[in-house]
Amino acid sequence: VDLDTARQELEEFIPHVRTISDNSIRKMAGRDLARFKQFKKQGIAVKFGRFSQKENNQIRKNVEEFLTITGIDSAEKLLFTSRYPEDKESISRLKVEHLFCEKLSEGIPRPWRLIYYRARKIFDPNNYKGRYTNEEKEKLKKYHAMHGNDWKKISEMMSRSNLSVAMKYSEIKSAINYGPWSKKETRKLMHAVEEAIRKRMEPEDGNCHSSPKKSNRDLTIDREKLYQKLPWTEIEAKVGTRYWRQCKQKWTTILTKKMTKGQQLYRGTKGLQAKINLIKRLYDMKVEDANDVNWEELSDTIGDVPRAYVQAKFYKLKVSCVPFWQKKTFSEIIDYLFKKKLPEFEERL
């Protein structure tokens, strides 16, 4: 399939395909297009975003089966072949002979590249090394000064995953403040968020040729754009003294306060009622995985709030109320809350 045809056919499954490089389009035409068409015949849509528990399990199954077929003795050797130079040639040959790309992506309606990255994250032993010591943090700063953002090289030097070293450097690169937010920091955050939202709106405004040109102050936006898919690492850089997660949490707090006009929606009897409503709605949904929950729809269980606020409240609820929640599936957590905690909350109310 020629490049233009491939891009046109892929657009049915990946709306943002026009922004993808030619080289990536060629790879996707070979690895993904036939799979996507097959999933379409089965009535299955291509997915993006966080991987569900079911998908993670399918990746584990696909990897284990490939290891059994080929005799490669570990997932690390399969997915991080460069760490084993003496075995590299034979492993590469086995991957080609036994159709590694097709086997890894079997049963998962996502682009192959995303499945591959997810598999590497699951099976990289360097992802599970716990907290960074002060000595490691100093090494990370030193290696970054020497090699810049070459996370692959730095990860090998530190025996940590690429993602881990990149995220940790983002956290420690400047003097991060963990105390209360100052007025100056809050102003910087709000300016950075406003700038990011306006930047996103510019291409959309450019497409609306029929509408008269508006001044910056007259700009109106959908509420979802106030908190969905904001470039938090860019916002972190502009704030300068806070890690990106802190920026995101603070912005959610500011937004919630503005949207609710400062009302205390999650305290006292209102808080109990919100917990009761949230548990009932989640139970009625009969959803097997948190990634399949439409948190936007659930926001009215608490009030006019961003979906991140609802997700944060649910997280706090499961951590404080469900014993050994880390070992339970999402549906088991919901069942426990419904059967054990809901009657307690109703009685207290």
In a few lines, what is going on in this structure?
The chain folds into 4 domains: 3-123, no CATH class; 134-173, Orthogonal Bundle (Arc Repressor Mutant, subunit A), CATH 1.10.10; 175-201 and 221-262, no CATH class; 268-348, no CATH class. Helices cover 62% and strands 0% of the residues.
What this model shows, in words?
It is a single chain. The protein is 62% helix and 0% strand. It has helices at residues 3-11, 22-31, 33-41, 53-70, 75-79, 88-97, 100-105, 112-123, 134-147, 151-158, 162-172, 183-207, 232-239, 244-259, 268-285, 295-298, 307-321, 330-348. By secondary structure, it is mainly alpha-helical. It starts with a helix and ends with a helix. The protein folds into four domains: 3-123, no CATH class; 134-173, Orthogonal Bundle (Arc Repressor Mutant, subunit A), CATH 1.10.10; 175-201 and 221-262, no CATH class; 268-348, no CATH class.
The largest sheet is: none
Strand content: under 5%
Oligomer: single chain
CA-atom Rg in angstroms: 24 Å
Secondary-structure class: mainly alpha
Principal-axis shape equals globular
Our count of domains comes out at 4
User: What portion of residues is helical?
Assistant: 55-70%
Number of strands: 0
Work out the helix count. 18
What series of H and E elements makes up the topology?
HHHHHHHHHHHHHHHHHH
How far is it from the N-terminal to the C-terminal residue, by CA?
Answer: 64 Å
Low-confidence stretches: 208-219
